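Quarterly update from the structural biology core.
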Amino acid sequence: MVWHPLLVCPLHWPPFLNAFMVWDWMMASERLSSKGQRVKIVGAHVDGKRALAAYLCDLPSCLKDFDIEIREDDQVLTEARLFYVKVLQKYGNLKGLWKAKSFSDYGGLMQVKVKPFGIIGYEIRPPKCPHLKQPIRKIPYFEIAVSEMESKPVISCLCGREKHGLRISCKLSQDATLCTDQFTTSCLSHSSHKGVDEYTGEDLVDWLNQELDLQTPGGQLSQRMFVLKFISSKHFEYGGTYQRLELPKVPVGARVPIKPGLFKGTYSAHGLEIIMLTYNLEGTKVEGIKVTGDRNIPTEKVTIRAHLPYAMTLTREQQETFDTLEAIPSVISDEPWEEMPSRQPFVIPQDCAERSEELLGNSCIARFHGFGQIAESGYQNPSFTPGHWIIFSEDLFGFMWMSLRCLSLYHRIPDTELS
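Predicted structure, tokenized:
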């Protein structure tokens, strides 16, 4: 172990001494790095670059970048600096939302949160089906914490029978100090998880009770589809690859009927899924892209789309059945949707298979011709079928599928649930 004498200098030294110390430290770091050795600072073994950055950092300000506030206490400051050096400098950039790039057709959503002296990754799941307006569920998946005895942080898998080791491999920045837009997890103890052949019927029933309200018609309908999802979900525990998910914003200068973002949506027997609503640069086209998917329309595929110039205002009589709806021609409207009445009549067709009437009123904000994607199992023979994109509020929209004779509803995941 090599100690550099200037690393023990107090932080309140005069600026000219601090400047000399930083220069000497940089030189020492370069010399030590060339010998494959480490620099020691306040009890932590770190790369020279990270040690230098930690020293130069105004700790309370740096921690505020991660929404952490600390009190001015010597013991707390020491622990906080260890946490900053050992964990945040490399893994702090993991904070945010990530979409799973593996797990077959189902995909997944991960949220990484920075907490005082620890980082936790959560698997994000929709609410228990079919309760669309309930909050999302957060299942702890991994933890990154400080170890006073080890030079590296302790990374643990929180799934399985007990807490155990997990490897996180990051795509690094150019200077090899920060995780950037992709990372991979790999469980280091498969024996700490149940193998697929170890699960019993009781395990499946327990899992179904977590995912479905089996007392509702929608819950009973979904059981068969959810067995396949159960098997796929167990592979999630062993690890996967994640890519950063940037939430879309309203295009500059555009007016849109509902803001973009993440929504929970109803997909018949597939249950509730998460999609991302996004607009093109001009704000004239909208798409819903699946973040979590199913055997028919997998993750990352477009589920619905619409063009805002194709707006319409319908009477109640035109909405009585799907036949009357299909008789309405898909044409560009004579006036922009913004100039149409702020509320217009809405009626669920008499022959609509899925109604969800308890979530809806008798009016909507806007309505547009659009298309929804359908496919056979395994994403075979995909095609887009006509439908109506209907806005009910700033947090709720629907898609009326003409060929499927059903209505899907989508409820916003609010920022408060993702903070």
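The helical segments are 15-34, 48-56, 59-64, 74-91, 201-211, 217-236, 322-326, 415-418.
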